[in-house]
Amino acid sequence: xxxxxxxxxxxxxxxxxxxxxxxxxxxxxxxxxxxxxxxxxxxxxxxxxxxxxxxxxxxxxxxxxxxxxxxxxxxxxxxxxxxxxxxxxxxxxxx
Length: 95
Description:
Number of strands: 7
Radius of gyration: 14 Å
Helix content: under 10%
Strand content: 35-45%
Strand order of the largest sheet: 3-5-6
Number of helices: 1
Structural class: mainly beta
Shape: globular
């Protein structure tokens, strides 16, 4: 898995000895957000009406990747399972 971000020019897989590998991006368009997540081959569809705002935050510690993805609208994400990786997700929904 590679977290290449065209907008930031940063790659979490690059060797940066002694430094944290952190990537943070914000999006106001669901298509732009989907293009950013091309590494996961996910299809993301906005389900609720309104302007879209999302934030992606990722860090790598050794072989572990921690990501936080938030959005202000309801979205559906569909995609293939990443081979060779275990994925855990916690989903919070505000009522």
